[in-house]
Specification:
By secondary structure, the protein is of the alpha+beta class. The protein contains two helices and five strands, in the order E-E-E-H-E-E-H.
């Protein structure tokens, strides 16, 4: 979500994990432009209720996006070689 931070700034917050973008923006439009620049890693997706959600670079993976849209995806279990020490 894009939220009014204080009297002068807006901030971008991940709707999935709650992490905040490190940058503050002077206008709502600046925050929109930042998240639409694919190099920054943020994405906007519609969830299963048709509401727009903002996802940070860590949460914008395919499984998270699909789950927010209400799709049922099976997560693959880790491969045994990646489970050393567990």
């Amino acid at each position: 979500m894009i939220e009014k931070y204080d009297e002068f700034d807006f901030r971008l917050i991940c709707d999935h994990c709650g992490d905040e973008c490190d940058e503050l923006f002077n206008t709502f439009q600046e925050a929109v432009e930042y998240k639409t620049d694919r190099d920054n890693g943020w994405v906007s997706v519609k969830n299963k209720n048709g509401e727009w959600q903002e996802l940070c670079p860590d949460c914008n993976k395919g499984v998270v996006i699909a789950e927010m849209r209400g799709e049922k995806l099976q997560r693959k279990p880790p491969k045994p070689e990646n489970m050393e020490g567990f």
